[in-house]
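ok so I'm stuck.
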Amino acid sequence: MTPMFHFTSTPPLALYIHIPWCVRKCPYCDFNSHEAKSGLPEREYVAALLRDLEQELPAVWGRVVDTVFIGGGTPSLFSPESIDALLAGVRARVTLKPDAEITLEANPGTLEQGRFAEFRAAGINRLSIGVQSFRDDALERIGRIHDRRAAIRAAEAAHDAGLDNFNLDLMFGLPDQTLGQALEDLRTAVALEPAHLSWYQLTIEPNTWFAHHPPLLPDDDALWEMQEQGQVQLAQAGYTQYEISAYARDGRQCRHNLHYWRFHDYLGIGAGAHGKITDAQAQRIRRRWKQKHPQRYLEQVGSEAVLGGVSELTPADARFDFALNLFRLHEGTDRAAFTATTGLPPDYLQAPLERALELGLLEESRERIQTTEQGRRFLNDLLALFLPEEKET
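replied:
not stuck anymore, here's the structure
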């Protein structure tokens, strides 16, 4: 029997802000990003974002925002003045936690000397810098507009600006990449002393340029060796793996991403932005997303037409989404967290959990349910156990 939702409180809340423009679309990118072929409508778009936020406010009255993440696209294309106006507008409309983590995504090829200090003055206290590789030939193959020197200079500029809490995005499994090249990229990244590293495998996503023109990628055995040796190298350098592709110094985990992985709530504003909100009074969880095309978004913001869609989660959906996110984390979870974030009784987790325990994909102690090493390696098999059945009664 499928249970009903029963929420006694709401989960913590985050805010995601999407700025969709970039200089050039990367061939592997399946994000909602659009090449900036003329001047950016910064003032108009910031005003639209704030109207969008106002439209979302009735669903979150009285709730405090723990983290803000400005992603894209390439948000660092916007001027510090625009980011300052945006964050001032956000603070005027919602209550931010006093120590709120406020992250800005940036790409090395879009940065001017001194800009990080201005972003910090605007309220940014964390950066996520899209490096991907430190080899010029690899960067060229994956369509990046920066080179090795620009990537290193960006990390150094972050330190100089006092923004030591920064992440470097780095990929492995690049076209024709060798094990030695992948590990050298990691060594270079570690030497720059980021607080956080997102180190993940290049995958070919549908509807990307690479999907239609597939490059030659390392085989599965080579990829596994890169991952294993890279994880050892990162651990030796003092970076703890806390999620499948996330590594951090002590206390420097990405708090915003933990909102997603712990199945907390988040508002999404901007072209193509997604949000997930728990309504304890109505006993429901809703996902909402906005029109993807920037011009359509600008024209329709402030009206219901700005919505690209709305979906209401069923209990089976909530159980699967909980597993999809929580079992990526090394910290694991417990039955109380399942009930608190999904509004569902612990027993509703039992059947797929027992099967996962039998297969050695999960392990359970008195305190925690955690993914085993086997479960992390075969995560899709683990998650398939929690997929909603076609008919639930």
